[in-house]
Input
Amino acid sequence: MRFLGFLNQRNAARKSAAKTAKDSGRSSYLINDSSPFAITEAFRSLKMAISVSMAKENDGLGQSFLCTSSYPAEGKTTVAANTALMLAQSNVKVVLVDTDLRAGRISKYFKIPQTPGLSDYLSGHASLSDVLVQTSLNPNLYVICRGTHTARPYELLADHVFADLNEKLKKDFSYVLYDSPPVGLVSDALAVAPVADGTFLVTRYEHSYQSEIRSTVEALRFVKANILGIVVNDFRPDRLAKKSSHYTQYYYSYYSGDKQEKNNPAERADEKKATLK
Output
C-alpha cells in the first residue's frame, strides 16, 4: 500500500467554497480555472499517482478505481469528482460512477438529474445509454448517478450485473472511477472493491482516526481489494511554510501566486526608491 499524497485545501478557498455551495450546490467544489494553485496542483499530483499506480495491460481495456473512506465528512466525493475531472483533462475518456445508492451526491456536483442511474440499470429498468451522461464541464468526462432509491443496494452491487458493467465500461473508457459510501457505515463499498482494479482511501487531516483507517484497510483486505494507497485531504502546507525556512515560504508563495517577490536585489532597491519618492 502506498501513500498517494496530500490534497491541499487552504482556509480562504474552503470558506469561499462553503459560502458559494449554499447558493449553487456542490458544483462549487469542483476545480476550475480560478481554483487556487495548491488545490489544482494537488489533484494533478493525485492524477499522476493513480495513472502510474498499476501497470498498463495490453488488452485494450481501461482501468477502474474505487474511491472510498472510513466515515463521512472526509471529502471522499469531492476527491472522486475532481480526480475524474483532472483525468479527463488528459484527453482520455473517463466515467465517474456513483455507487452510493443510498445517499450519493454526484448529481449535485454536476447539476444533472439523479435518475435514471446505476440502481435503475442494475435492476434492469434502464439501459446503459439511458444512465450514461456526458458532462458539460469536459466532453471527455461522463457520469452515472446513483439512480432511483432502492431497498437493497448491497445486493445490487454484489450481483454479477455490476461486475459485467465494470467490464463494459473499461472497454469504452480509459478510466472508470467509482465513488462509494464510507466503509465504516455500510458494507456497500466492500461489494465494489473486489470488482475495481484498484482502491484508494481518502482520509482527512486532523480529522480521521488511525484506528478507523486501520479497520477500513483490514475490511478492504478481507474482501481482497487491491489497495493502492491513502490520500490525505484538507492538508494545508501554508501552515508548515510559516514554521519553515524563508526559502520554503518564498517557494510556496511564489508558485501559488500569493506573492511575486523580486529575485534581483537591484530590482528590490529600485522599487524601494520609487516608494520613497
User: Anything to note?
Assistant: The first strand starts at residue 2 and ends at 8. The first helix runs from residue 11 to 24. The CA atoms of residues 37 and 74 lie 21 Å apart.
